[in-house]
Structure formats: C-alpha cells, structure tokens
Amino acid sequence: MNDKQKFITDLRSAASRIFNGWRALERYANAMPLDELLAKRYGLLMSAPLSFARLVMQVAEENDVALNMLDGGQAKGEKARALLLDTWYVVADTFRAELLT
C-alpha cells in the first residue's frame, strides 16, 4: 500500500457515493481504527452489503491494496446456531461447551 490515508479517504468517499450520505464507512468497518488495522496487514476490514463490498474491492485495487472478499458467508447446516457475547456473535452449525474450573 502506497498511501494508507489516501486509501481510507477513498473508502470514505466510496461509502458516501454508494449510500448518498445516508451511511458512513464506519457503520460497516471493523471496530478497530482503520489506520491500526491496515498497519497490521491482516484481519477483517468490514462486513458490508455485496454492492458496497464490490466497490471496496475496486477502491483497494486502485490503491494497490490486496484484499480477499468472502462472499455469502452462510452456515452450512439447516439449523445454524448463534453464540451471543455482549455485542459480538458467532454463527456455526454446532458449538461445544466446557465448564472450566
């Protein structure tokens, strides 16, 4: 990545264009500040609608940023379960719990 701040500015501009100012980039971005996340060079950048995710991929390419997009992300089983932890959640087909003493 040549210019981290330009990439972040371009992402904000893309969000403004696609959502016509109704939603900000931060609504979909990781809770970690973007400059910190991008410095790590790994991690989940955002969870967003497919139309916005495709635009983000285009912006990333224009800024020489390598991203992978996970499309779909649906659980495989018919009865997926959710584990809720405060404002975080995990969706999986099954969970195993252990009592730690």
In short:
By secondary structure, the protein is an alpha+beta fold. Helices cover 36% and strands 10% of the residues.
Strand order of the largest sheet: 1-2
Portion of residues in helices?
25-40%
Count of alpha/pi helices: 3
Estimated structural class: alpha+beta
Tell how many strands the DSSP assignment holds. Answer: 2
Q: Can you put this structure into words, describing what you see?
A:
This protein has a two-stranded antiparallel sheet. The longest helix is centred in the N-terminal third of the chain and has 16 residues, at 4-19. It is α+β, with helices and mostly antiparallel strands. It has a domain at 4-62. The protein is elongated and about 50 Å long. The protein has helices at 4-19, 34-40, 50-62; strands at residues 81-85, 88-92.
